[in-house]
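Re: Re: token formats

Sure, here are both.
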Amino acid sequence: MIKKFIAKNNIESRLNDAVNNILDSVNSESMLYHINKYPIPSKKEIIKILNGLIDIIFPGCFTEKELNGVNIKYFLIDKANDVFEKLSIEIAKSFRHNHDIKSEQCELCDDCVENGIETAMFLLDSIPELRRKIVLDVKAAFKGDPAAKSYNEIIFSYPGLTAITIHRIAHILYNRDIPLIPRIMSEYSHSLTGIDIHPGAKIGENFFIDHGTGVVIGETTEIGDDVKIYQGVTLGGKSFPKDEKGDVIKGRKRHPTIEDNVTIYSGATILGGDTVIGKNSIIGGNVWIVNSIAPNSLVTLSENQTKMNIKTCVVS
């Protein structure tokens, strides 16, 4: 049936014309294609690597195979080998791609390969410390959420923990100046959880994101220990200075600093690289903050929501 209508409506010729027009577009604008070049990192492979790392961090939690004291080592060896091989390749490709962007000649040089191998090994060596921090994040969630019935409930179902776990992985690679891959990881986490954490953000221990949807944490944000934030919180940039050509100047601190033991309630917006929220403060919902707040402060909106109230508080 469909073939009759294809012939009747001259679809083959029209398809050929459409493809020729698309090809002309591709040839005229190189930004959106990647052909005749060395392969770039594979998003699918990076997601597989992330899942492998999560299996190593939480052995037995997300795998179909039951683990015990006998097979756990073989499981970890298998997973670690797989992650190492895949991550080494993807990191090497990311460095090769970076050379390509800078118009530097490189056919997957020895430096790219060695960087891939050493960084993959460094990440695997970092897992014990990574797990220590994630244990503290789980405990912070359990302590901070009266609805949490168990640690396993948090591990299996809390999007905040998923986002924090992936961030802590991506942040290690970001600190090693790995191109592309940390951002691919963070945006995959964003698509999974609705929580947007740039891999450059520095986040302390005992961190808890409750609910999580709509949370945004910018690249140069610095967060201390024992911080809790709720859904819809933005830790963002206030303004972006430009150079003489009108281009945004990159590399400066643009996002706020949140000191230890701060709670930020839903919908709060805190902006600016010079903005510091002092330790032991409570930031109420829906406030807009572009200036620093002293330690031990309680910040809320007035009853008619026309101004902010700031007073000293005691946080236990």
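Second one below.
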Amino acid sequence: MFLRARRQRTRHLLLSFVLTTIPFQIAIPLLTPTYQTIAGTFTAKLFFTIPLLASLLMLAREQNTRIFYLAREERWVTAVLLLLLVSFCNPNNYALWATGAFAWLFITCVVFARLVAANLNPTEILAGFYESFVVLCGLQAILAVCFPLLGLTSVTTLFQVGGAEWSTRNGSRPGAVGVFVHPGNLALFTMMASGFFLACYLTGQHRKLSLGLLLLNAMTIVLTYSRTSYLTVVLVLVAIYYIYHNAHKPLLSLKTLLRVVLPTTLVVGWLVFLSPLSSNFLASDAQEMFQARLDHWLIGLSIFQRAPLLGVGLNTHLEYVAHDAALSRLIHNDFLTTNPIHDIHIVVLAEAGLVGAGLWLLFLGHSIYRAKANVAAGNNVVFSLTHIGVVLCFTFYGITDWSPLSHSIFPLFLLLTFFAYKYSLAPQALARLASVGPPALVTDSLSTLATSTL
């Protein structure tokens, strides 16, 4: 009995370990294209990753190993698989290996998530995320203090080869990188984790520790000197807090405008123009970076004009630029034409066309709508609030950077999305449950999927 109880308390550790390793990008190349190719945001290589290793272990050890099925809450998975199929058949796709690399990453993460959901309950899954994020955020904060605060540049190359170069943004301005290769990746991860800890704090999960980690993450974000993250984290945390306390109210209303949008706008204005951090926005290389984004948008929209309906294939836009002499001449800057477009929405538009961009916007909007409905019903609150934060991070931070579509971030996005959808109910189902009885009855009906507690 003791051993059984102990196993119940430690079943989440494999999940926690896998989550912790994702930012380190621990992987072994399995297949590399033999032809010359420009790597997409996910490269063109197939990797043997820690999630894949964990999946193989679970397939060998666990009883429930069902991974092939269709489910209503995973229609977003089906949509991505269909887009991949279209990309493989797309005549504009000059880098099938690159599309295959994205397909491999996506399927690996989905299989791992399905195995976890089949063998762990929501409480154990939440514990796995919590413990992983505690370790990662603590480590990131320590490394952020070492550099740039203490100037110990040696820590920037402890985990990533390119950390030393990108920690100073090619000499323009320093910023913490943590275990990542670029300050932007660290900032984005820390914002996602901050949304998770705020959700835990609001729902009473380790309130003191969660609040402490929120403050620690605030320090880390400041030390990244990432301008977009300063603005995004304010929007994300305000949105999570407001939705938690006003989930039953409509988001688009005059009261919301007066109570939330205007104060948030004032805070953002103070941050940009009057705060001690304003020099990051008004000085340094801000103008140069803004021009670089405009040039990247021009490249992306030019690709879209050439293939407006279906795009040029997932994870392939750089290869398409290399094959189009006119596009290469459009921007006389090798860095801009050989690095991913710094706007994930433009990347989706260029690589998946109007069809993919429409599905992407539908996914973003529906995710917030579905999560808000579940928060209002008291169901799956932590993952729902976290998913709202993650979606907003990708929506706003993704306008100026491609780090959301990187090996160190995207798997975490997929896993958080999977469990947010897995344990939530569609708004229509919640409405039907609400019609059969008082709110207390609805809450009881949802207790099996419940608001997870640690």
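Residues 220 and 358 are 35 Å apart (CA to CA). The chain has one domain: 14-248+285-449.
- S.
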